[in-house]
Each structure stands twice: as structure tokens, then as C-alpha cells.
Design brief:
single chain, about 240 residues, alpha+beta, 2 domains
């Protein structure tokens, strides 16, 4: 696994906005493929209480276009230093492509702790926004941390990455249509505080490296980051 350190966007302890995860041509390809896909009731992939909260559509798992969409999205996340350094991904769940039209929503819920066959532990969730926010009303991703709620409605191609333990929802759509890709990640480091610390050390090392790449302090910080990652890695 590549653990090279680079200077990247500041990450909250709770979530990370990844701008332009997808390039314009990748977005257009996904939109074109989705336009001809078969969508089914999203409740089919929900479990427990989430089934009652979920009111959307998603591309059927057997549709031929889904494999190509997965290839585009997987290439994007594999090519994203920001995603890889923040998530430290071990396994990424196959993307779901969801569609919200007028009246659709996803009520407050917590994602399942384990998903898939073979099963993965869901440490992180990620929503990739595929629709221009000016083309639909409502549809914000809301994440609740303690007594605070943060709303996200970024540009198309952007993504929001966040730990799965938080309550979250998608506001009801009042006009237009919202298309998004959603996945879950089992990280090599399952503890959110440890992942945050590794991210912060990455930031500091990148800054030092730009100023003095061969300094003893720069190399010591790189060594510390590597040793902590080695200590905490869940293989």
C-alpha cells in the first residue's frame, strides 16, 4: 500500500469534503450510463430501521451499466491522494447509485456496522454528488455530531467522507432530481481518532518537507507516522 505523504486539505475530526473527486468527463459518463439504467426501490438494500427511513431509487445490482460505473468510480478513488490518505482504505464496498426525485428522502439513520459478502466493517461512508446543486431543491446530506448538525450540498463530482457511527439523513427533494453514488470503507485503521492523528502528522510532514526535505526533523516525523501506522494497521 502506498503511504506517501503529501500536503492535502484540512480534515475535520468528523468529516472531509473532497472537491472534484470526479473529473467532468467521468461525471458525464456516469450520467449517460445512469440515464439508460433500470432503477428499483432503494429499500431493497436497506436493513433494520434504515429500511423504514429509506425512500429513494437505485440502479439494480444486475444492470449491465453498473459494472462500468463502478470502474469509473473505483479509478477515481484509487487516483485520489486525499481519499487514500484520509480513509487508509482496506476494502471499499461496491458503490450504490441512488436517485432522489420530488418527495424522495432518506430519514435519520445509522448505517449497518457490517455489510456485504464477504463482510466488511463499515468504518467510513462516502457520498459522491453527481448532480449540479442548482438543479434540485432540498436533498442536503445532514450529519449529526453531538448536538450539532452539518448540511452538505457540494458541487457535482465532489464527495463527503465521514465515520459511519453518526446519525445522518438526506433531506426531502422538493424539486428536481439528485443523483449520487454511495459507498462504505473498511479502513486499515479502524479507530477514528487514530486515523485523524495520522492525517494530521501527514499534514505537518508535508509542510516540513516543502521547507526542508532532508532535515532531521522532517525524517523523524516521517518515521513516527510510519511507525504509528504500522502499530495501528488492521491487516
Amino acid at each position: 500500500m502506498d503511504t506517501g505523504l503529501i500536503l492535502i486539505k484540512k480534515m475535520s475530526q468528523h468529516f472531509l469534503h473532497i472537491p472534484a473527486l470526479l473529473e467532468a468527463k467521468e461525471i458525464e459518463s456516469i450520467l449517460s450510463l445512469s440515464a439508460n439504467a433500470e432503477f428499483v426501490d432503494g429499500k431493497m438494500t436497506a436493513s433494520m430501521a434504515a429500511k423504514e427511513a429509506k425512500n429513494n431509487l437505485q440502479i439494480t445490482a444486475t444492470h449491465e451499466s453498473l459494472a462500468t460505473i463502478h470502474d469509473i468510480l473505483n479509478h477515481a478513488i484509487q487516483s485520489s491522494p486525499l481519499f487514500n490518505i484520509a480513509a487508509l482504505p482496506k476494502t471499499v464496498y461496491p458503490f450504490l447509485i441512488s436517485k432522489y426525485g420530488k418527495g424522495h428522502y432518506y430519514g435519520w439513520h445509522v448505517d449497518s456496522p457490517v455489510m456485504g459478502q464477504p463482510p466488511i466493517r463499515t468504518d467510513l461512508a462516502m457520498t459522491v454528488f453527481l448532480s449540479d446543486p442548482s438543479t434540485y431543491e432540498g436533498g442536503e446530506l445532514l450529519i449529526q455530531v453531538g448536538g450539532n448538525t452539518t448540511a452538505f450540498k457540494p458541487a457535482k463530482g465532489d464527495a463527503i467522507l465521514y465515520p459511519c457511527q453518526y446519525l445522518h439523513c438526506v433531506n426531502e427533494i422538493s424539486a428536481g432530481e439528485r443523483l449520487a453514488a454511495v459507498t462504505w470503507v473498511q479502513s486499515h485503521v479502524k479507530d477514528p481518532a487514530q486515523r485523524q492523528l495520522l492525517y494530521q502528522l501527514n499534514q505537518i510532514h508535508a509542510s516540513l518537507y516543502q521547507q526542508a526535505p532532508n532535515a532531521a526533523e522532517t525524517n523523524l516525523l516521517l518515521q513516527t507516522h510510519s511507525n504509528l501506522f504500522r502499530m495501528w494497521a488492521d491487516l
